[in-house]
Every structure is written in C-alpha cells, then in structure tokens.
Amino acid sequence: MDFAQRQLLCTFTTLAELEFELAAIARTYKVDGDIYVLQNQDVPEDIYLTYNVRRDMVTPRRPKTISVHRKKDYNVIYSINALNLMAVGDFSGSLNPRHEIDWDRYRNSLVVVNGKSITVFPTVLLKIVRPTK
Q1: Domain coverage including residue 109
Q2: I need a surface site. Which of 14, 47, 63, 64 has the fewest CB within 10 A?
C-alpha cells in the first residue's frame, strides 16, 4: 500500500483490556502491517496500540483512538496538536517557523496535548502483534 494512503492510529487501552481491544481493532479496520503494543513506563497498566490503516477505512473510529504521526529515528509517536506546541519554541508562546524540535527530549515516548500543554508518556515496546484476517 502506498504510504500516502495510510494513516497511523493510536488506541489507548489498559493491560486488562488489551486482548479485547486487539480483537476489536482487527474487526473494525483492515490493518496494514502489525500492531505495536506500547506500555507506559510510569504506569504499566496503560497501553497504547499503534497501527496503520487505509485512509479511506478510518471510519467508524474506535473509541479512545486518535490519529498520530511518528518520528522514526527517535521512536516518538505524536499528535499533530502536540507537534504544533513543540514548534512554539521552548514553549515561550511565540511560533518560530525555524525552530528545530529537540526530538531527543521525546525519545521513546508518546506525546499528546492535554488542554494547552504537552503530555509525554515514556513508552517501552511490550510486543508486536500480527492481526488475524
């Protein structure tokens, strides 16, 4: 599948609901590739599932699921809203189009927006799951 036709999604779940959510994702979407199961290092019960789907197959959207992007070299998963806040340059409040994001600061994490601030969840890869057809 052409990369431009794919969308990376992240579903938030818990360790107790992991198997249920994996099965629900497989029923809801045609997953392109594997599902990466990331565990929050600080709160091991919190699980983040990342996976690619075809752009034209993202509705209906699973509950607790957002569209995300990935900075592969740093293993950072981030929402576009988080990227916008990261680009504000040291969070000083002024947008600087030349500001370079210090991706090392977010290495191995999920970065999302909570209200008007960035929330960084340090992650570790728990496992990789190949969804059944």
Answers
A1: 3-129
A2: 63
